[in-house]
Each structure stands twice: as C-alpha cells, then as structure tokens.
Amino acid sequence: MQDQSRYRLPQEFLQRRNSRENLDRFIPNRSAMDFGYAHYMLTEGRQGRENPAVISPSREAYQMRLAEALGMNRTRILSFKNKPPAPNWAELIPHQLTSPPPAKPTKPRRYIPRTPERTLDAPDIVDDYYLNLLDWGSSNKLSIALGNTVYLWNASDGSTSELVTINQENCPVTSVSWAPDGHRIAVGLNNSEVQLLDSTNNKLLRTLRGGHRSRVGSLAWNNDLLTTGGLDGRIVHNDVRDRHPIVETYRGHTLEVCGLKWSASGKQLASGGNDNIVHIWDRSMASSNSRTQWLHRLEEHTAAVKALAWCPFQGNLLASGGGGGDRTIRFWNTQTGTCLNSLDTGSQVCALLWNKNERELLSSHGFARNQLTLWKYPSMVKIAELTGHTSRVLFMAQSPDGCTVASAAGDETLRFWNVFGVPEVARRAPKPSPEPFAHWNCIR
Predict the structure, then answer these.
(1) φ and ψ at 133, to 5 degrees?
(2) Which of 121, 269, 305, 416 could form a disulfide with 281 if both were Cys (CB 3.0 to 4.6 A apart)?
(3) Do residues 96 and 366 lie in contact, with contact meaning Cβ atoms separated by under 8 Å?
(4) Are 190 and 157 contacting, i.e. CB atoms less than 8 angstroms apart?
C-alpha cells in the first residue's frame, strides 16, 4: 500500500492533463506562415549561417539592409497563432489620465441694475449728516422721519401710513430704529427724549427721559436693550422692560455720538462720533465707575464717523467711514484694535452696508457724485456705481432678505436698489403693460 501511494500522480496534474488547456502538440497556423521563406531558410538560408564566408563590412551591411527590405530577417519559421492585435491605449490607460481635467464651473456674474427699482418722494427730510432717519424692520416695513412725522412704507404691498407726528416744541425727529421683533420702533427726538411705539396699532408704549441733555441722533437695539447716543457725547443703555430703564452710561466721546452699531453676538458695541473717534465697547468689561470703559479707542479717522457696519461673515470685523475731511473706509479687528486696511474713496462716507450673501460692501457718499458704490472685499475693487441722487446720500437701510437697499438723500427722494441681487422665491414675471410713471410715488 505504501509503494503504490508513493508513485501515485498528483490529482491536480491529472486534472490539468485531462483539461483542454493542456494539449500534447501545437498546430501551426497556415494562414499566418510564408511557405516560400520557410523553404528557403530550411534549404539554403541555413548554409550561409552555418558556414559564414568572409565578407567585407560594407557588403555585410548591404545584405542586412536588403534582408530587412525583403522581410528576410525573421528567425521563426512556423507561426502558431495570429499576430496579436495592436494594443488599444485608449482602453488600457484610464480616462482620467488621458483627458484634461474638467473645467471648474464658473459662477455667472450677477447683473447689478444701475437704476433704482422704485423712487418715492420724501419731502421735508432733514439734510443733516449726524442724524439717522431711515430704518428697515424685520416685518418688512421701512420707517422714515420727514420733519416732525414718522411714516411707514410696507414693502409687501407698497402701502404707506403715518406712525406718529411729534409736537412742534419737541421736533424734528432725529433718529428712528426698529426693535428686533419688527413691531416696536424707537424714535429719538430733538428734545433729548426717546419714544417707544407699537407699529401695529400706532400706540405710544413709553417715553424714555433723563438719559441725555440734548438731541438723540443715534439708536441701536440689542434684544430688549436700547442704546442711545446723543449730542452730549453720552451713550446710554436702556432696558425697556424695566420701570427705571437706564442701566448703564458710557462716557468716551467729547462731541455728538452720530453712529451706533451692536455686533451680531451682542457682546460688542461700536460707536462713532463728531470727535473723529471710534470706540469699541465690551459689555463684559465696561463699568460706569471707570474712565476707560472702552475696549479700544480708534483715532485714525480725521473727520466725524457716522458710517459703521459689522461684517456678517467675520464677527470681529468692523467697517467705518469718515466724513468730508477724511473720506476713507477703514477695516478694524475689534479683538486687537488694529486697522487691517483703509481706502480713500474721494468723497464723504455717509453710510455702509455689508452684503449678507457675498463678500461685498456698499457705501453711500456725498459731494461730488452723490453715489452709491459697491466694493469687492477684501480687494476693495470697485464693482459698480449707482447714481441718481442729486444730493448727498445720507441714509441707507437694508431689506430683511438682504437683497434690496433703500437710500434717502438731501434731494428729498427715497430710492430702492436691487444691488445685492434678487431672491429666487421673490422673482416674478414682469407685468405685461405697466402703468406709465408707476415707478414714481410719493411717500405721503
């Protein structure tokens, strides 16, 4: 039993022998063979190779070239298979290596209309650089102060209404600002008072007194905290829920506070004044008992600073614009207090607004062109100029969707610009036959 198993063939060998893949002979492929060349090589061609004669190098080179020309330099006689086809390199090499990478799709350039979408008449608007008479609330209602009256324009249906008219001894209205809820609105007056009204029923909720000694030209909300800036240089925090609303007072400006803006986080407040100073205040460190309540005191501007705008995509970035003697837009890191960049615009900077969807900044200007200028940030390349106002563009406000900008100027007009684009859901088909002069209306 052991001897028989010693000479037993492996099972895999037997399987290979019985398979069709292992044949015992090769069958030449006659269609691929040259029988004339084969006969020559078997009879005469081999004699020269086995008994080579002494020939000169030049004759040997001639014979080699002649053999190549006649196809007689082959060494094989029999051909067992057809000549393999030429490789298809397009199939062997991956498509990603042979074809150029697909071009990155470029974003189509946004069309920016150079003319206003709508123009409203705004008579008796006060032509004063230091006031803030225009604001657009979250309920899509725009408020504007004309003389001693505050009007509301409903952007949803285009209707206008009168909110409040102030007594002659307290007028004119010097500032307006919507609360975050879109229903309450604060109205600053020339007599140092601030009225808080409910826009749904035109009801006076309360009057804030005692914070200032003269007119209140700037307002800013931080939830239920209303911050006011006055001609006396004071900045007053009012909690409108409390019976005694004044909770804190900042003292840092020596002249009128004409610009106030809270950051999106509500932790920092930026203020600009007629003393050419920008202050950054931090609620966590400010104390009314300290003479240095501010976090940073920025003194690079050489004229009054009213235009202030916090960047929506970088929380510690603030843009500020100077008046006629300065004409520059400056960008600040409010954590370190350093000036990141500055640009001389050539004219008075009255207001600044950031695009909420793109890295762009819009500025409004005074003499000599009274234009709105759209800048690309951070390169500050000019994208577009919007002209039409015939007097300095003192005030700007942005719609809740961030696409439309309203501008009011000393020429007593209120213009609406689609400078930041149009939302997809808000696009409507154009009217087939609009009424003549439908774009020109009066706000009152």
Answers:
(1) -110, 15
(2) 269
(3) no
(4) no
pTM (2 d.p.): 0.73
Strands 149-154 and 268-273, sheet pairing: unpaired
3-state secondary structure of 38: helix
What are 63's two structure tokens? 């014979």
Contact of 237 with 227, CB cutoff 8 Å: yes
Q: Which amino acid is at 105?
A: P
Amino acid identity of residue 239, one-letter, is D
The whole-angstrom separation of Cα 1 and Cα 196 is 114
Half-sphere exposure of 101 (CA within 13 A, CB side): 3
Which of 44-58, 371-385, 423-437 has the largest mean confidence? 371-385
Distance, CA of 61 to CA of 289 (rounded, Å): 109
256: closest CA among 195, 181, 199, 174? 174
Taking only the tens place, the pLDDT of each residue in 194-213 is 999 999 999 999 999 999 99
φ/ψ of 280, rounded to 5, equals: -110, 120
DSSP three-state, residue 9: coil
**Count of beta carbons in the 10 Å neighbourhood of residue 105:** 6
308, 318 contact by CB (below 8 A): yes
Q: Residue 255: which of 167, 338, 323, 193 has the closest Cα?
A: 323
Structure confidence at residue 398 as a pLDDT band (50, 70, 90) = very high
Examine the pLDDT at 158 and tell me if it is beyond 90. yes
Per-residue model confidence (pLDDT) at position 108 = 77
pLDDT at 57: 76
CA–CA distance, 354 with 207 (Å, rounded to integer): 32
Rg from Cα positions in the chain: 43
Q: Percent helix, strand, coil in the chain (nearest 5)?
A: 15, 35, 50
* For residues 262-276, average pLDDT: 97
Q: What is the DSSP letter of 61?
A: H
Q: Tell me how long the chain is.
A: 444
Strands 305-310 and 328-333 turn out to be: unpaired
